[in-house]
Specification:
heterodimer; A: 625 residues; alpha/beta; 66% helix; 8% strand; disordered N terminus; B: 495 residues; 54% helix
Chain lengths: 625, 495
């Protein structure tokens, strides 16, 4: 495969374009051979290439300059910046031919409503002035209702389209809310977003070295995402930023491969306004921009291109199998009978793949059932643990003192437990998907490989065969991964945490009796304290009950969706195989009816087709290394 | 105003302590009680607490008016350090194991440099710095390591100091520094809540929005922005429950203003003499300031020095003030900078909320200490002391005021907002002096104060008797009535 692979020089330039042209070639082939099923598969791949969605999440502590960083990165003022109030809902900045904004309201799928750019601030920043809340009323909730959303459901986010070259290859910059700090439920939401993102920019300012909370958050982010960059901001203002950078690098030495980059958004915006290149260099942004372009956009694009190329590769294999079988029958009429027998036997195997008793199908349904029960159990155990901790804390404190803190603690604690539960679900679902893929391939792989052997002029050496099997395996895995990623994101971004936001701990009913009498002050206080503790414990139980009820349903639904997606995916693959096999059988049967001249012509045609397919497959293999 | 009644409280406190000392004579606790009683006459102990790098040491220096505590870009205060007034200059180390010992120290322009005699900071419980200073005569200041510190040990130490297990808090009052509100901060403040003398306690804590110049990242209007934010924070229920009010302070600027040198003013003036446009470009970033415009006449080492002392905001502000001739001399500039740093506002707030309430805060700490001792180590005869203690706590009017204040702040006393605000002021929520309680100008005459107090008395008597008044508010109203009566009595006594 050396010769065709040499075209990979041009492939490197723009992986998405390369993948796109391969998919187009594949589409031509499937249309020519009248395989509508394969055409549909490639059309889906083409769609995902056209809409790549490479997410980079900007996260960090309250007031570290996240929104300014996004503005600086894009060289435009899209995210509202304020000295006081913080960003309250995530902002998604993606490519669009003209500047446009829309609000996303909670729902599945979220409802989108265009708004004028001037209104963005109203939706994005938290309500200033601090809404007057009394004891125990929840303060700012995640995805709450900042400005103007009355009667339309809660705002889940704001989407901004911006005509910027940087975004044109599918980059989406997500500015996350800074409300409540990294220890809050919001931060858990950010982490959930990170788990499906392609990269994370962690923002910390040069006023001080990283704190324990920040390092903890970075560590979690690092576990969930491969590409993490720590951005040190406001270096124009703090004279000792180099010292701080050194200290930060020291703290991050344990977290392998989190580089620190220093920038100044103030200098950047001034440089952009005045078109000042010197100042731009001083701002540190060119380095950040190239990091995002190289490490995030390009990598993301390469991954997507590989996924698409994997599809083309798989389709080539299907078609090759069909033609190889026909060719074998044509080239040697003696063998035709045997080919037909083999194909008939293969048909039986393919049929078994499509039946409800197929091993992969069993694995899938058993696996999902096990998973549902395990995840549920895990969730219950976690919630139980939280309740225990809360009870212990209540034993040594007075809810009258610390109810709001207790509430914040409980929210954040449950969010992190839910996140852990969700991470487990994801990991186990990935494992299951791998198992199903293995069991599917055990049968389907045979069918595909068999016909390569019948080819009198073997096109593949054994080594190449192995390589291709690996690729096949990879492309199958990638495919389902991709399907699953969309399933997860639906759940995590819009369902899990926003539905949690609707659960409130609620106010603690009793006021505190003002006792001014001389006698029995202490006894009365003790009695009231016990009563408050009882109430607090009940409230916490109700809250946790509600949380497990809602998230339990969510994860069951998610697992069901996963099951359906995997089933549909592999059923479609089985159908494709069946169709290829049937076509091969048909042509093999037809061989006998052909005249000698006809046969030779067809043989020539087939060789040409096979060569074309092989070249296409090799090109695909080059894109999906 | 309530000099007389508070002193009465102090006397009663001293009385019950003396009786307890008699009861516990000969035991180990006897000595401890003696020190508790002695503490009543010491200056108020004010701890400066807050997250790591919130500017605690800088603020301490600004409050003392001298550079005593070490400040640094990295995390630097790792030992709880007490700064007390005294006749001579002296530093004493208290190791975790072993007795206290004098330490050698040097002092340069930077701060006091203490020789730890080979011990690691982790081995030292606390450090006492005795320094003759008029500022330290009113208050003993305690510098604490930051919470959220990456050095686990140092952070735990701040917790130990502020949330001592035995409920006796070494500090009488706390200045809590916040860089900008943060959930963890509330977590930390919970440590001040005690259970007996008053509930969640906005009584002995003031919030300081420190490093206020950084809020607007050094823009000239940064302080205005900081004041707006502090104002909002002070009305936020979660914050109101734990601190009395929030004051913005640009600590570095305040510290420098109080220790401004002629040389520094000369350097600032050289900057101010250049065209504003060029200076704006120069002051775009700290790197530029150090490297660009060699013709300025200020060496890069001097410039670095200026940045360390003023920060970019201070250099911008200082040179602008000189250019616009708002200040002409070093003295004028120092005054102007101190004023703009918010330090004077902080002094005022400290005066009305802490120092004027010194006796109440002192009694409170002492009674807390006594209460925990009585409960943990009962001896024959201690029951009588318990009864006396309980009576003081339950009946002393200043404590009742604190209790109502705390309840109002926690939102338990409900009523029309105007009425609740009136109540809060009347019982001393804005400060202890009569004009603050009655919302009169500071120069209000005796007659004016008396008229206002009498009016407030009638108003609250009506409310207390009104059957429509809720139970909590009625109880609170009776306390307010006593506050009014107290003010009137004080005025009568003064005559």
């Amino acid at each position: 495969m050396t010769a065709p692979a040499s075209t990979s020089g041009t492939v490197e330039a723009d992986p998405l374009a390369a993948a796109n042209s391969i998919v187009d070639l594949g589409l031509k082939a499937t249309e020519a051979y009248n395989r509508t099923d394969l055409t549909a598969r490639l059309t889906a791949a083409k769609r995902s290439l056209a809409n790549p969605g490479i997410h980079v999440v900007v996260a960090g502590e309250f007031k570290q300059g996240k929104s300014s960083l996004v503005n600086g990165l894009l060289g435009a003022t899209v995210c509202p910046v304020d000295d006081d109030v913080a960003t309250a809902v995530p902002t998604y900045v993606r490519y669009g031919p003209e500047l446009q904004a829309a609000v996303l309201f909670e729902g599945d799928p979220p409802r989108r409503q265009p708004i004028p750019m001037d209104d963005v601030r109203r939706y994005v920043v938290e309500q200033s002035g601090g809404t007057p809340t009394t004891l125990g009323q929840p303060g700012g909730q995640p995805g709450g209702q900042p400005g103007g959303g009355a009667g339309q459901g809660a705002v889940a986010g704001v989407e901004i389209n911006l005509p910027r070259k940087m975004l044109s290859s599918g980059l989406v910059v997500v500015d996350t809310p800074g409300v409540g700090g990294l220890g809050s439920a919001h931060a858990a939401a950010s982490l959930a977003a990170i788990s499906i993102a392609d990269a994370v920019l962690f923002v910390t300012d040069a006023s001080q070295e990283l704190t324990q909370t920040e390092v903890d958050f970075l560590r979690r982010a690092r576990d969930l995402c491969d590409t993490v960059l720590c951005v040190l901001t406001k270096i124009d203002f703090y004279p000792y930023w180099r010292r701080i950078r050194e200290l930060d690098e020291g703290h991050l030495r344990g977290e392998n491969g989190v580089p620190v980059l220093a920038v100044s958004s103030t200098l950047r915006s001034r440089a952009v306004r005045g078109n000042d290149t010197t100042l731009n260099t001083e701002s540190g942004f060119p380095e950040l921009v190239s990091f995002v372009n190289e490490q995030v956009t390009r990598r993301g694009a390469t991954k997507l291109a590989a996924e698409a190329a994997g599809e083309v590769f798989a389709i080539c294999r299907q078609l090759e199998m069909q033609f190889s079988a026909e060719r074998a029958a044509l080239a040697d009429p003696e063998a035709a009978k045997r080919v037909i027998d083999e194909l008939t036997a293969a048909k039986a195997r393919v049929d078994s793949l499509r039946s409800a008793a197929a091993k992969w199908m069993q694995t899938l349904s058993d696996g999902v059932a096990d998973l549902t029960s395990d995840i549920d159990h895990d969730l219950r155990a976690r919630i139980r643990h939280v309740i225990q901790e809360a009870d212990d804390a209540l034993e040594t404190s007075d809810p009258a003192d610390n109810w709001p803190e207790m509430e914040a603690w409980l929210e954040s604690r449950t969010s992190y437990e839910l996140l852990a539960n969700y991470t487990l679900l994801r990991r186990r679902a990935d494992d299951l998907s791998g198992q199903v893929a293995d069991h599917f391939r055990e049968v389907s792989g045979d069918v595909l490989e068999q016909f390569a052997v019948y080819n009198p002029t073997p096109l593949l050496t054994q080594a190449e065969m192995d390589h291709n099997v690996k690729l096949e395996k990879m492309s199958v895995g990638k495919q389902t991964m991709f399907a699953l990623r969309n399933t997860y994101s639906g759940m995590i971004m819009f369902t899990m945490l926003s539905s949690m936001a609707h659960i409130a701990l609620g106010p603690l009913g009793i006021g505190i009796g003002l006792v001014m009498g001389r006698k029995g002050l202490r006894d009365e206080k003790e009695r009231q304290l016990q009563q408050r503790r009882g109430q607090a414990k009940n409230a916490i139980r109700r809250y946790c009950d509600e949380v497990s009820f809602v998230t339990g349903k969510d994860s069951r639904d998610t697992l069901r969706r996963i099951q359906r997606q995997l089933r549909d995916h592999y059923s479609a693959r089985a159908d494709e195989l069946n169709k290829s096999n049937a076509a091969a059988l048909q042509s093999a049967n037809d061989v006998a009816k052909r005249s000698q001249a006809d046969r030779e012509k067809r043989l020539k045609d087939l060789d040409a087709e096979l060569t074309r397919l092989r070249m296409l497959r090799d090109r695909a293999a080059a894109v999906a290394p | 105003m309530s000099e007389r009644r508070s002193s009465a409280l102090l006397d009663r406190t001293r009385g019950v302590l003396t009786r307890a000392i008699d009861t516990y004579r000969g035991t180990r606790s006897g000595a401890r009680l003696l020190s508790v009683r002695a503490r009543l006459d010491e200056p108020l102990r004010v701890a400066i607490a807050g997250r790591v790098k919130s500017g605690k040491s800088t603020l301490l220096n600004a409050l003392v008016g001298e550079r005593l505590a070490t400040t640094d870009a990295g995390e630097c205060t790792r030992i709880v350090t007490w700064y007390l007034n005294g006749q001579s200059y002296q530093v004493v180390l208290k190791p975790r194991n072993g007795g206290a010992m004098q330490a050698r120290f040097t002092r340069d322009e930077q701060a006091i440099e203490v020789d730890l005699a080979g011990m690691s900071p982790d081995d030292i419980e606390e450090m006492l710095v005795t320094w003759p200073s008029s500022a330290l005569r009113t208050a003993t200041l305690i510098d604490t390591p930051g919470i959220g510190s990456l050095t686990e040990r140092a952070a735990r130490r701040a917790w130990e100091l502020l949330a001592a297990d035995d409920e006796e808090t070494p500090a009488d009052a706390v200045l809590y520094l916040m860089k900008h509100l943060h959930a963890n901060d509330l977590d930390f403040l919970r440590a001040f809540h005690d259970t007996e003398v008053s509930r969640p306690n906005p009584v002995n804590a003031i919030g300081v929005l420190s490093r206020a110049d950084e809020i607007g990242v050094g823009r000239l209007d940064s302080m205005a922005s900081a004041r707006r934010i502090a104002g909002r924070l002070a009305t936020e229920p979660k914050v109101r429950r734990v601190v009395q009010t929030v004051v913005p302070v640009a600590g570095l600027l305040a510290e420098t203003a109080l220790t401004l040198t002629e040389a520094e003013v000369r350097q600032l003036r050289l900057i101010a003499d250049h065209p504003p446009k060029a200076i704006e470009e120069l002051l775009l970033s700290t790197d530029r300031f150090i490297e660009k415009m060699p013709e300025l006449g200020v060496t890069s080492i001097e410039r670095e020095g200026l940045l360390g002392r003023f920060g970019l905001f201070g250099v911008r502000l200082g040179s602008t003030l000189l250019r616009r001739e708002v200040a002409a001399t070093a003295t004028e500039l120092a005054k102007e900078l101190a004023d703009r740093s918010g330090l004077n506002d902080l002094h005022e707030v400290l005066q009305s909320l802490f120092f004027e309430r010194r006796d109440v805060l002192k009694s409170r700490s002492a009674l807390l200490a006594l209460d925990s001792l009585l409960r943990s180590e009962p001896v024959p005869g201690s029951a009588a002391v318990v009864a006396e203690l309980e009576e003081i706590i339950a009946s002393a009017h200043p404590f009742n005021e604190l209790r109502v204040l705390a309840s109002v702040r926690a939102g338990w006393v409900s009523g029309k907002p105007g009425v609740v605000a009136d109540l809060e002021r009347l019982i001393g929520g804005a400060g202890n002096s009569a004009h603050l309680r009655l919302q009169l100008p500071p120069d209000a005459g005796t007659a004016e104060i008396r008229a206002a107090a009498a009016q407030a008395l009638m108003r609250w008597q009506r409310r207390a008797e009104n059957p429509m008044t809720g139970h909590e508010l009625a109880v609170a109203a009776r306390v307010a009535i006593r506050s009014c009566e107290g003010m009137l009595a004080d005025l009568a006594a003064a005559r």
